Amino acid sequence: MSRGESNKGDKASGRQGGTFRKKSYARGNAPIKKNTAPKQVSDPNSIRLNKYVANSGVCSRRDADIYISAGNVTVNGKPVTEMGYKVKLSDEVRFDGQLLNPVKKEYVLLNKPKDFSTTIRDEKGKRHVSGLISSASKSKLLPVDKMDKEDTGLLLFTNDGDLTKRLKSPINGLRKIYHVVLDKDLRNADLVKIQEGVVVDEKVVKVQDISFIDDAPKREVGIEIYSSRNKIVNRLFEQLGYTIARMDRVVYGGLTKKDLPRGHWRYLTEQEVINFKMIK
């Protein structure tokens, strides 16, 4: 074999000058590697740990990552610091020892129209307020308090059981303002009695304010009250011989009907939620 033929053979086999020349894959000539790793099957019952913590209301998802990396979060009794870690809804997750609930807390305000019930739907199929906010959440949201079917106005819905419990019986009361239409004109003497305090079921009902509605008949009044007693406004007027023909709740806590037409709903803002959670 001639020397020229030998060099050709060496080049063809990748050998040059007695050494092997490595092939370059810089131009995309690398062999295709088959991915033999099994694909991770998505579990519909699992959720990222940071989202789990955030949904519980402890903090934002970004802050949750910080707490997780610091070891503040445990899953089934063991600290987890791995980012992107997924947990099952059946797992026990704690933050600084406190058991967490992964259901995201939601808060919806409805301007309730007339002829909608706030009690559990019965067999007769009465229209229920839950149908008016059905598109607001996939979670089951319940009204914080009850309103008569004929009553209208502000009604708060949430799945936050702790907040509902506080709002139903706050120590300092919850501010509510009603526009009340009576079956007859309210006498000035009875208006004064209400201002001074009327006894209902052996307990004085104190109102913050009551006044006639401007440019309206004397049977229309506005009343501000902090009591959480059941149907206390109705019972207050009944004690003085009046029947409420219509009642509209125009203020609930710090919430108003501004830009919220009858039958429509909106989510509470972050600040509004914070304000409610400060109520004891």
From TrEMBL:
It comes from the Bacteria. InterPro entries: PsdUridine_s_RsuA/RluB/E/F_cat, PsdUridine_synth_cat_dom_sf, PsdUridine_synth_RsuA/RluA, RsuA_PseudoU_synthase, S4_RNA-bd, S4_RNA-bd_sf, TruA/RsuA/RluB/E/F_N. SUPFAM superfamilies: Alpha-L RNA-binding motif (SSF55174), Pseudouridine synthase (SSF55120). Residues 47-108 form the RNA-binding S4 domain. Residues 1-43 are annotated as: Disordered. One of its GO terms (molecular function) is RNA binding. Residues 1-13 have a biased composition (Basic and acidic residues). Pfam families: PseudoU_synth_2 (PF00849), S4 (PF01479). One of its GO terms (biological process) is enzyme-directed rRNA pseudouridine synthesis. The keyword Cell membrane does not apply. PANTHER family: PSEUDOURIDINE SYNTHASE FAMILY PROTEIN-RELATED, RNA-BINDING S4 DOMAIN-CONTAINING PROTEIN. Belongs to the pseudouridine synthase RsuA family. This is rRNA pseudouridine synthase. It comes from Maribacter aurantiacus.
